[in-house]
Predict the structure.
Amino acid sequence: MEKTEIVWKHPKGIISCDWLKRNLGNNNVRIYDCTTFLHYTDDNPSKPYDVESGQQDYLKEHIPGASFIDLQNQISDTSSQYKFTSPKVELLRNKFGELGIGDPYHIVLYSTNGLQWATRVWWMIYMLGHPNVSVLNGGLRGWKRNNYDLESGKNVYSKTAFTNFKNQSFFVGKEQTLDAMNDNKCFLINALTSDIHNGESTRYGRPGRIPGSINIPFSDLMDIDTHMLKSPQEALAAFEKHNITKDSEILNYCGGGIAATLNAFVLYQLGFAKIKVYDNSLSEWAMDESLPMEVD
């Protein structure tokens, strides 16, 4: 019996640099650089990293026509003590509209330092009901590897709106995560590196992981050098070795709700449907002494 080929279930959500190059003149395509840099600190668990917008690098060079999204300051809840908390959906809807994201445009997202910043914004747009949104496979690194043109300066798109607005629950808080921890039907996946998962690092305060969680680092799902997603076959194998199946309930977490969105994006592309992300992740959980932690 011939084995069924494993393919991405939603290929329009992943576009190649070649496709984008061919569509640079398409007025229906709007491109956004989502880059954010994290500068990790070693001595302050309540502030595990300093956040730097990628805007200065964007102004120096970007894909022609691209605008910029400042994830922390433009589309996160700036009143939260955590860096990237998703705001209330109505506010987020309006913010995206001001940035030119919405109908009837095909939104293309990329970042310069991995895919996770683009997948974070992808989920925020997708959950509001705008399905015409894609991540650039390879990001800016892939674009430059092809020696495609770059430009400098600033681009701003005209405002638009979401005409088919939805409020789809995707990001969850610590209460739902605690429930998931006690639910044998739900897999908790830690998208951080193994040293943090195992308890060898105190970056987020108390060392370790949410009890019962398994470790599938986001970096295992993409090529670190090229910023290209691993093949569907390789990605599926990373989850299947933990006995995760298509009907499993899955809650992904990381340090601040960014890396976990790459795991969630890959799961979505593989056809998994019951996917959540713990928004504030260990930045919140590890600092709350009332919540349990587990180490090796």
User: Anything to note?
Assistant: The CA atoms of residues 77 and 123 lie 16 Å apart. The chain has eleven helices and twelve strands. Residues 171-285 form a domain with the Oxidized Rhodanese; domain 1 fold (CATH 3.40.250.10).
